[in-house]
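A further point concerns the way the authors explain their paired sequence and structure data. Each protein is reduced to its one-letter sequence and a matching series of backbone shape codes. An entry of this sort, consisting of the sequence and the corresponding backbone structure tokens, reads as follows:
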Amino acid sequence: MFGTTAALALLWAIAFPAAGDPVSYEAAVAADPVVAESTAPAIEGSSSDGVELTDQQEAHMQGEAQWSARANLYHAGGGGATGNDSLGCRPIAMRTVATDPRVIPRRTRLFIKETVGMRMADGSIHDGYWYASDTGGAIKGQKIDLFTGNGRGSMQPAMRFNQQRLTIVDAGRFDGCPPSWDSTPPLMARSSDNVGASN
């Protein structure tokens, strides 16, 4: 009851034995050029890595996190970003975050500890601040989606955060739309000071 295909497979295995052990998933991902390139030049994100933090950033780094969420990356042109976010704002690369508003309310300014010091495509360094201004049907519970920009290549600087659990501090509320990188975001009140504010 030995099929012809099985017999040929057995002969092939005897004649050409497999060299080495099977490759683990982690090894295969590490060998992926997109992942390897995105992690090589990056700063890991703590004050000891040469990133000069403001007093506010240092307080957030040392403070207790309000959330821990698994991150996914999304970009324009990938089916994930089509037009404006749920606040009616243009999504801002490496600033806009989509959340489950029952867990992380919209208009919450987030400080994501792991992203501090991330070197972005233009050579600038991420300050750790993100803005909950989008939602999504697939985002339920302790999940967030980080908007990286236009096209798959925009994900490269943040690739190491994809499918990872990130530490998120509530850094207050924001009005209007998330700021672009060419403007300094103003300091905001903590969301606990704005209980009852509309989402």
